[in-house]
Design a protein that fits this description.
- There is one protein chain.
- By secondary structure, the chain is an all-alpha fold.
- A two-stranded parallel sheet has the order 1-2.
- Helix 5 packs antiparallel against helix 7.
- It contains 10 helices and 2 strands.
- The protein starts with a helix and ends in an 8-residue tail after the last strand.
- The protein is about 75% helix and about 0% strand.
- The radius of gyration is 20 Å and the shape is globular.
Amino acid sequence: MIASGSAVTANLVQPLPSPPGGLFSQSGHQLFSIPTSILAMVVGIWLIAGGGGSRSLGWMVAVLDLAVGALGTPAWLKFSSALPILHSLLAQALFAATAAAVVVTSSGWSRGPEPVPDSGWPSLRSLSSIAPVLVLIQIVLGATFRHKVSGILPHIAGAIVVTLAILIMGMFVTQQCPNHRPLKSAAATMMTVVFCQVFLGIAALTARMINSTDTPVVVLVTGAHVVTGALALGVTVALSLQIRRHVVPRPKQVEA
């Protein structure tokens, strides 16, 4: 759905070949959103019914699902140019919340934490709080650029900051927890996805510079960039959850 929505947004000048109701059409995007919304709501209700710490996550998934569906209707999108951006942002947040649901319902999560000390600076736990926010801000900057609300420079500057933050967090995890399988695996996945995202961002910018209109190449590369951005947010959230679960905070020093 994120790929389809990106295609609908970017595909304004020269549409991709798509039959009525096809993936790259507005009606197709709305049609395919129905089963996606139902599945997300099922996940939310399941988490809520399960109780415990996952209940709040279930409510988050359910509320985001309803909000994305409501803002995706054409009647709402005509009121303000900011609503399509909000719709895109909430869709990304829903994907991240669903990724978090996958983590907290996995068999590895049910086995309990494997504590490791938080020995670096800045601490892994602080980085786990900052990194998802930075990725989400970067997604907002990308959405404002695609919707022609802002220029490309803020998005490029944000990409540099986010890539640096992700690199630092990933390297800290691999250096401080070299034998911790869940953390090391999540960090390697996050860095791989983010580096792919950077490459696709450069490709999308190059395609836009070469082509004067939204040609199929631009739409496809931009769509891949948007989808990988959602994956980057999802894997960053997943690693952050693993850090919060396994990494033990440093004890506060008591002044004499």
